[in-house]
Amino acid sequence: MKRTIQALGLSAALVTALLLGGCASAGESGASSSESAAPTATPTATPQADPVPNPLTGVADADYTNRRPVAVTLRTLSGATPHWGLSGADVLVEGVSEGTTAGMMALYANADAISKAGPVGPGRDLFLQFALPLNAVPVHIDKNVYASNLLNTLSYQDLDGYHIGKAAFAFDQDRQNAGYREENCWYTTGEMIRNGLSNYGTTLEGANTPLFVFGERPAVEEAARNGTSLTITFSADDSEQLNYQPDTGLYVKTNADGSPTLDADNGQQVSFTNVFVLYASSGIKDDGYTRDYALTGGAGIYLTGGAWEPIQWSKEDATGPLQLTTADGQTLIVSPGKSFIAIWGGYYGQGLRLTAADGTEQTLPEKPALLESGISDEAAAAAQAEFDAKQRIINAQAAVDDANAQLPDAQTALEEAQAALDADPENQDLITKRDEAQAALDALNQTIADNQAILDEAGVTATPAPEESASSDAASSDAASSAASDSQ
Question: Fewest C-beta atoms under 10 Å: which of 78, 136, 351, 403?
Answer without folding.
Answer: 78
